[in-house]
């Protein structure tokens, strides 16, 4: 007899699980269906198959510009967040110092700040020091938001690897930088890649903070939000939505599979 | 002699008994991250706090420390009742989805299914896709001319003159969409706490004559409560300050506290001083919640040593 679940219980839970999965994916599937629907209004009955909306968004310069801006912001801010995250995570796992609990609490605190509060805070800061709002100000905000996520991914990995490997390299005369480059970095690389991907997707999708500090050049979420207010743009927004959703699902799954493969290789090598 | 000099010493010299560490010094590691957070996280919040007490302002005229805006806020029925409305909405959403997520996590962690991590990824994946696009999907589904209403009309279940009009732009829509968005995420901390549960405890309980229900009530549930508390807060905190979803699907009845803050800083009738008060109040509430429940939120690895 299973101690946690009866046979019926397991069956009921399995059905419930798959019902929830259907609930979670149904809206995405509905978007997919209507992105190919030959009507300016997404409603039943379906009126025919078309690639028109995909074609329309591929030729929409505003939309492509916004996608490009978001890609740049996401790339720069996740690079920044990963660098700061690696530094912080090494300090938290390898160093002893006073006030560590407070430092780690501060480093993780952007996780819980309401984005509306952080957004207006940054707005007031840039207003005060006279920095005009631009893509750069969005990057600055996104680095703050992504930093705790990168730390949360990197710390467990740093805890896992054997410190004696680093010490051995160091004892054999490698400089601190060399030790980091040839020992630590390769060992934490899978986590660095996950951290980068998490930071990238966080930034690429971030609307709340960006809405306060973005300048005249829109990011993709900013563009989407304004497009949602104009019904005639809805079908092509749905088409973009489908492309972005499918791409991001693919990235998520690829990242997870990649992490697993890397970990298995690491384990079999060790 | 500093550690750096010791490193440069020629080989063959006797090792000092201070154990050298192959890492950079603490200030070198933490300097940049802490400076970044100080300038772009702490200082901005301090500016908002200063603004709320009128110590600092962009408006012309004399300024000095005053509690006027705070006093006004604490005695205004509008802002406080809006805050309670948001608290209630967030509480209901958090409670419902934690209740829904618990059996999901239980199934993944304890049913012995072989594809546990694949199923977990299946559950979590929607959370990792675009937030705005998932809200958009519900706008398309719930609208008066949307998928549900036109489906009912098309199938003849309702006449086109009487759409179910409360679907979109309502408190219900906000709560449904927020629940939809956060459901996959709350399953995660509950799963982690159930996953680390020692099954031998359940076996021992069963051997001693406990039924499954008793074993669940006396062992599984209490041991998973930290995960449940973490899950609850992980939803409650962000939904409390939410403004994006209510502005897209909430209409006037779904208007939340976060929307009020945005509007006070908006282009209509801006009142940055009152807006700062509202923001700092929200931040204070969140900070208190976080500190009180810190032991559930603090990731064990970081808190250790």
Key terms for this structure?
heterodimer, A: 270 residues, mainly alpha, MetI-like fold, 11 helices, 77% helix, B: 305 residues, 2 domains, 15 helices, disordered N terminus, disordered C terminus
Task: Please describe what this structure looks like.
The complex is a heterodimer of chains A (270) and B (305). By secondary structure, chain A is mainly alpha-helical. Chain A has a single domain, classed as MetI-like (MetI-like fold, Orthogonal Bundle), CATH 1.10.3720.10. Chain A has eleven helices and no strands. The longest helix of chain A is centred in the last third of the chain and has 36 residues, at 234-269. With 305 residues, chain B is mainly alpha-helical. Chain B folds into two domains: 21-66, no CATH class; 76-303, MetI-like fold, CATH 1.10.3720.10. Chain B is built from 15 helices and no strands. In chain B, α8 packs across α10 and α12 (257-264) runs antiparallel to α13. The longest helix of chain B is centred in the N-terminal third of the chain and has 34 residues, at 77-110. Chain B is globular and about 75 Å long. The model of chain B is unreliable at 1-18 and 300-305 (pLDDT under 50). Classes of the chains: A mainly alpha (270), B mainly alpha (305). The interface between A and B is large, with 103 and 101 residues.
The stretches of 5 or more residues of chain B where confidence is low (pLDDT under 50) are 1-18, 300-305
- What is the architecture of the largest domain in chain B at the second tier of CATH? Orthogonal Bundle
Stretches of chain A where pLDDT is under 50 for at least 5 consecutive residues are: none
- Count of β-strands of chain A: 0
CATH superfamily of the largest domain in chain B: MetI-like
Helix content of chain B: 55-70%
CATH superfamily of chain A: MetI-like
Specify the number of helices of chain B: 15
The description of the largest β-sheet of chain A is:
none
Outline of chain B, from the CA principal axes? globular
Q: Name the CATH class of chain A.
A: Mainly Alpha
Provide mean pLDDT of chain B, rounded: 84
Strand coverage percent of chain B: under 5%
How many helices of chain A?
A: 11
Quaternary form: heterodimer
What is the CATH topology classification name of the largest domain in chain B?
MetI-like fold
Q: What's the pLDDT, averaged over the residues of chain A?
A: 87
Order of helices and strands of chain A: HHHHHHHHHHH
Question: What's the domain count of chain B?
Answer: 2
